[in-house]
Amino acid sequence: MVKYAIQRIIYMFLVFIVIMLMCFVLVRMLPLPVLPPEDPHTQVVRMRREAMGYNEPYLVQFGLFVKNVVTKFDWGLSDKLYFGQDVWSIFKQKLPATVIVNLYSIIFSIPIGIFLGIVAALKKNTWVDYTISTLTMVVISVPSFVYAFLIQYVFCYKLQLFPFVMEAGENWFSPAMIRSMVPAVLALSFGVIAGFTRTTRAELTEVLTSDYMLLARVKGLTLPQATLRHALRNCFVVVVPQIFGEFLGILAGSLIIEKIFAIPGVGSLTLNAINGPDYNLFMLSTAFYTAIGLSAAVVVDISYGFLDPRIRMGAVK
Amino acid sequence: MGLWNDNRYMIKWAAVLLCCVVLLTGCAAGGKTDSASDASGKGSSASADRYTYNTSVDQLCTNWNPHTYMTANDSYPHEFVTSSLYSLIFNDALHPLEGKEPYEGYVIVPEMAAADPIDITKEVRTKHPVFGIPSSADSGYAFRIKLRDDLCWDDGTPIDANTFVESLKRLLDPKLLNYRASDVYKGTYSIANSEKFANAGVGVFTSFADLNTTYEAYIAEGHTDDEVFVDISGIWNITTADNKTYAAITDDTKIRDEAVEEGQPGDYISAKEIWDTYLNAGMIDGPETYTGIVEYKYEADYPFENVGLYAEDDLTLVFVFNSALDGFYLTSALSTSWLVKPELYDACLKETKTASGSVWSSTYCTSKDTSVSYGPYKIASYQMDKSIRFTRNDKWYGYHDGRHVYVDPVDEKQYDMYQTTDIDCQVIADTTTTKQMFFAGKLAAYGLQAEDYDRYRNSEYCYQTPGSTVYFAIINGFADVIKKREEAADFDKKTKDLETITLPVFREACAVTFDKSAFVQNVMPRCKEGFGLIGSTYIYDPDECLYYRQTDIARKTLCDFYSVKADEYSSLESAEESITGYDPVKAAELFQKTYEEALEKGFITDLDGDGHSDQTVTLTYSVAADTDHQTRIIDYLNESFKEATAGSGFDGKIQVIKSAPLGNDWSNSLRNGLTDIVLAGWSGSRLDPFNLTDLYVDSSRAFDGMWFDAASHDMMLDIDGEEVTMNLKQWSDSLNGQTVTVSGKEYNFGYGKADVDTRLAILAGFENAILATGDYSPLANDGSMYLATQKTYDVTDDYNPILGYGDLSYTRYNYNDKEWEQYVKSQGGILQY
User: Which among B59, B62, B56, B45 has a CA at the least distance from the CA of B382?
Assistant: First the structure.
């Protein structure tokens, strides 16, 4: 297992470098934004491009880029959206808001989603199951920004239970901050709850009809005991990787939700960097999400081995 | 073995998750939400001694460095954290203005300065010839300004005359290449020798288009070919071996052109070849633009001591300008918005080495820690893309000097300025959220959206702010292109026609077809009717706050154009007020005339002899994006044409259709004659209506630049008893300060060169001439409407283009923060407007 994990991590680095090289070359091949001749910044931007090696061959440019990142952790300066500012400092300022809101959302959603899935599975083909399944389908079909508007209108405007937008500042765990995040967390959670409910119900329904569950009951275990000890563990082989998958979503953020609840996150950063265009910012966000995506994939793969002892990927016979 | 080996793990996880859920939901049980709390998240700040102004923006400032900021968003904090040497305030009982009611105009008062500027032109001219003050000038060029002795930064560090000098030195520092450096030498004023210092030691390329010259004219001025360069990167997408993007037109070094396969003709090319074969031959970037041909100038090191700003002592500054200034323009020149704290500024600079030198960046004024204030407020907190909060800068002199007071026009009591204690600005990009927050009392203003106008336009809290843009219906007149479009295979000449729109009589008919009043009511409710070329907010005399649109000559121009007989009214004003610009009867007559003319010229046919055109004149409306607003405009145009053509040969035969979404190309599409009608307009500096004329004579900017040649349209005016005939381009150039030679005689009607009545007469004549072309049919004068909070009130209800309704310094509060919170609660949490 250790060898497998090391192999996967090495491959992950190789894939990361290949993706970065491809993105880098493709971005550098794009026509540069035209610099208006009368613009006082034209000369500054030209010199910055020179410093970034724009006039050199692509591989030399990439070497320069890697050297700056590895030796100085210098991802360059923003040329458009945050003119002249260090892109890493911009990114790291904006990441926590996205992470924290989405993390709360996942913490909130997973137990509820799994619980509802279990209930639906245990009450299969009863009105409870029908209700949960129908609601799940409805929630999955409606985009999260619709809930966002509804939640804001009902809870913030009409009932005035929560602030309209997220609190300013960086005291992420202060009561005021947490309360201000509730509407956004709720809006983000509905879809996640529905996803976990559906997956858990489907897996658990299948597991509950297995022979070993019958054996467990025959051995004298109660239904809750059998479900908790045997059924849930098996159905989590599918559910837990889904949690890791959601983790990637945590970091990506949500453009619309961030806009509606004024969350100063990274949801729109990559999109704005492309539209800007702000290539240094784009490269940093690409690198970040690529790294997270690849890491999540490795963790998911390795987690199978922990979750189900029968799975021994990469083991030598 | 595994994570789930024991049920205890499950129970622990469940407990942790349950705690999180309880924590989240428990927080929500805290009752009603507070008013906006401070950005540091310390909770509600509602208290009886605070007056917080809560506002929102779509996009927050990211760089408010006064030397490098680029956008209006970025300059947002300047209003609060900076001061100027002199400022504009309303005229009131304390500052009366002759001939004006209180709050009708404004006065200029010393702010950071201790007294009015003293003109020392004569003295400086003699003592410091380096500034180049003309020997004939006795005033207007050099000013001595005494500073207050209590100026300081928000940390208490004193500001003296040397701070100003050091700040300007950094602004103009050639190695920093500051974006705002040119503000002090390329605008309406120029500090003596500042441009030379800013460009010292730096080679400067300036395109011939920017120099407003041609190669021939440039050489005729005595320059040589060595000074003329080609932008080989921009034009040919190549660079020299040492990565230079410009090359001299005499440089015959061959450069590899990667776009051409090696061995093929043109695989290697020199700057000289590009010049000889293409540019000089006018094949590309020819005489029309000259953007790729540049002048190269290298200035040697230039001492800052020669720049026209120096300190005579700690509290005395001397400004020297390149041209004479007075009144309002002098005040503008002395805004000194470029003041920085030198030590902090230097600490924020970062150098990046390049192959050919260094490039600098700065973090000054990009966060709370790198900002410093010398204005009435200071930054209390800043979070990128989220919020900025200002609080009172207690070190600011204005809170203690007894000078920052005004007399309220209603109760005639004297009040201190700046009652606001805090300003909280949040990024709220979603308009629905903004609206809900406003009605819940969380924001001070809400800009009405189209769907809100009907409901709130008559609210006592609704304010209208006139804009400077006039929207015109602009009709395609590019005859050559229209003809070609008709000849295209997919154009059905049996059912459609385009050429009719080029007839002058068609344009005359259009000018009286549109009911401007109905248009603004139904399509653009935030606007007012537009009749002239120049909007209602343009001021021709900033010192006296006099509007061009309110001059007799401007009123008469409109009356003449719209055929209103002024002598039938009690005054020119009432005559002008009677203008509607809408005459359906005359429009029908003119459309009938258009029909007859089009029939005669063969543009249309009437084969069945029913007196109606067989073809429908189909105008394509140029849209950037397909929006409901554009649809409403097009529907209105169609409705208007339908009404106006009733009974004529074009009855129901004029139709406007929407183009495909053209994005940013919408205007070029009309300019190039590929679409036929659009609603668009211009705006410019509200203090310089004369400069607007250039928009109509510059073919690269004018909407009709491809078919209307201002240089071939003559206009005769009586100037001081002399009949002067020039073309419209010459009139515009001379009005904007260029010397124009006509029949061997030089004319210059620029600011300070001609009296204001003459300039107004030229502007009015020009306006009439352009309206008469029929290319621009005015429909609406832009504006905006917003609801203002019940928490505050403005000092005046009359909009002033310079001071608005009174900025934050005049804002008064009906409630402090605590009272406001209670008031909103008493209203059920949702306010009625």
Answer: B62
pLDDT value of position B18: 57
Residue of B nearest to A305 (CA): B2
| Range with lowest mean pLDDT among A85-99, B216-230, B603-617 | B216-230
Question: For chain A, first and last CA: distance in Å?
Answer: 12
Q: Do A177 and B41 touch (CB under 8 A)?
A: yes
Rounded-to-integer distance, Cα B226 and Cα B296, Å: 8
Nearest to B532 by CA among B693, B413, B701: B693
Say how far apart CA B757 and CA B760 lie, in whole Å.
5
From B241, B243, B251, B240, select the one nearest B276 (Cα to Cα): B251
Nearest to B361 among A77, A93, A182 (CB): A77
**Chain B closest CA to A253's CA: distance in Å?**
15
Residues shown for chain A = 317
- Chain B CB contacts of A167 below 8 Å: 37, 41
Identity of the residue numbered B100: K
Check: CB of residue B380 under 8 Å from CB of residue A75.
no
What pLDDT, in 10s, does the model give residues B113-166? 999 999 999 999 999 999 989 888 888 899 999 999 999 999 999 999 999 999
3-state secondary structure of B616: strand
The predicted pLDDT at position B32 comes to 39
Whole-number Cα distances in Å, A2 to A16, A300, A302, A306, B64: 21, 15, 9, 12, 52
* Architecture of the domain delimited by B113-199+302-362: Alpha-Beta Complex (3.90)
Q: Is B362 on the interface with A (CB under 8 A)?
A: yes
Domain B47-111+373-444+791-833 has CATH 3.40.190: yes
Q: Where are the domains of chain A?
A: 2-87, 93-307
pLDDT digits (tens, 9 = 90+) for B459-501: 999 998 888 899 999 999 999 899 999 998 889 999 999 999 9
Is there a contact between B547 and B537 (Cβ–Cβ < 8 Å)? yes
User: What pTM was computed for the model?
Assistant: 0.77
As assigned by CATH, the class of the A93-307 domain is: mainly alpha
Q: Of B341, B428, B667, B289, which Cα lies nearest the Cα of A260? A: B428
Query: Residue A276 gets which letter from DSSP?
Result: T
Residue spans in chain B of domains classed CATH 3.40.190: 47-111+373-444+791-833
Determine the Cα–Cα distance for residues B624 and B136; give it in Å rounded to an integer. 54
Architecture category of domain B467-788 in CATH: Roll (3.10)
In chain B, residues with a C-beta closer than 8 Å to the C-beta of A107 are 17, 20-21, 24
Tell me the three state secondary structure of residue B274.
helix
Determine the Cα–Cα distance for residues B434 and A164; give it in Å rounded to an integer. Answer: 9
CB B391 within 8 A of CB B782: no
Query: Using an 8 Å Cβ cutoff, are B734 and B690 in contact?
Result: no
A233 contacts in chain B (CB < 8 Å): 4
- The CA-atom distances, in angstroms, between B576 and each of B473, B527, B534, B535 are 21, 18, 15, 14
Least-confidence region, from A43-52, B606-615, B744-753: A43-52
Residue B284 predicted with pLDDT over 60: no
> Is A164 in contact with B442 (Cβ distance < 8 A)?
yes
Query: Quick one: tokens of B37?
Result: 């709390």
If 0-12 CB within 10 Å is exposed, 13-18 middle and 19+ buried, where does residue B538 land?
Answer: buried
